[in-house]
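Support request, please re-run this one:
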Amino acid sequence: MAVREATRADLPALRALQGLLDAPVPELFEDLPPGVTLVSTADGVPVGYSHSFTGDVAHVAELVVAPAHRREGRGRRLLLAVLARLRREDCRAAELVVAAENTSARALYEELGFEAGERLVGYYGSEEEAGDAVRYRLQL
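Re-run finished. Output below.
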């Protein structure tokens, strides 16, 4: 289960994986975005990725693993690799936002030391069907 830096050749697979997210950033993979994009591969093909924007406080923008490869530890490995890279980039903290009802992702973030912060009411979706989110932060 390899984790490596994404390349332009990975863009079609990244776009396909991005379609699995509830609230993707549509223009993110028009090309390789600035920041850190890592992929988890199976037989050389990306089956998961994480993208983070760097800065004093980095933002983990997207993390997704294909359903057929979930529960294999790929999300954890991707996130650990991203956090290591962010530390090397001299980021002092990492933040992310997750759907309040996504208990499995929230449990992973908490296991890795992220602390839950503010609840973002109506963060996802239209006003009629808006879902809440929780902001998490980890000091690096």
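The chain has three helices and seven strands. The CA atoms of residues 98 and 133 lie 5 Å apart.
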